[in-house]
Amino acid sequence: MNKNWIDVSVDLSPELPTWPGDPTLSISKFHDMSKGAVANVSQLSLSAHTGTHMDSPFHFFNDKVTMSAWTPEVSMGKCKVFEVKDKVSITAKELKTFDIQKGDNIIIKTFNSSYEWFKKPFNENFVHFAEDGAAYIAEKKIQFVGIDYLSVGGPKNGIEVHHHILGAGIWIVEGLYLKDIAPGEYEFICLPVKIKGADGAPSRVLMRKI
Ligand SMILES: [Zn+2]
User: Fold this and answer.
1) Which residues contact residue 57 at a Cβ distance below 8 angstroms, ignoring those fewer than 6 apart?
2) Handedness of CA 26, 206, 135, 123 (dihedral sign)
């Protein structure tokens, strides 16, 4: 494989913060060779929205498509990475300074990638979309958006932000770690685990500079 691919997914590990009120992640040895078993077999218990993961429109809309409607065109190809400087939220005002076009795949790098956010505790002050920022990308009719924390929306506006984005049929990947990614154009591959009818799915995401 080409060495220039950068893995921007986070480890699934018990150290990961999870969304308050959602199931926490647990990984245990169901069969353990150090205890005499013939093989090691891990048991996982997790939410579909753990670590680096996709949201399908069904996450917030009962009448919209699930992860089963995912096709490779949804989250593979070219993407534009923009770096937002605002340390609180991703506003329409700042997004308007970027070249965002209909059908674009965009990934937003924020202050979240300046620290190891994938280690507990959950940071409720993570940088997230302002409602007007979410409305702006919906209006622009982009195809796909990625962000470097567990949710596109914050603890106070998560519902509204998801409604704007998923309501516009835009697919989402959350939980990226973009420390080594500078703004610019990339090829990307985001592959969700194939969970039938799911509202979300843990995903592996790779990026390569064009
Ligand atoms: Zn989400």
Assistant:
1) 64, 65, 166, 167, 169, 171
2) positive
Residue 3: its pLDDT value, please? Answer: 74
Ligand 1 centre to CA of 165 (Å) is 10
53 classed as catalytic: no
Residue from 49, 53, 59, 164 carrying the catalytic annotation: 59
Q: How far is the CA of 147 from the centre of ligand 1 (A)?
A: 10
How far away, in angstroms, is 179 Cα from ligand 1 center?
A: 21
* pTM as predicted: 0.95
Domains parsed from the chain with CATH numbers: 48-209 (3.50.30.50)
Query: pLDDT, tens digit, for every residue of 89-118?
Result: 999 999 999 999 999 999 999 999 999 999
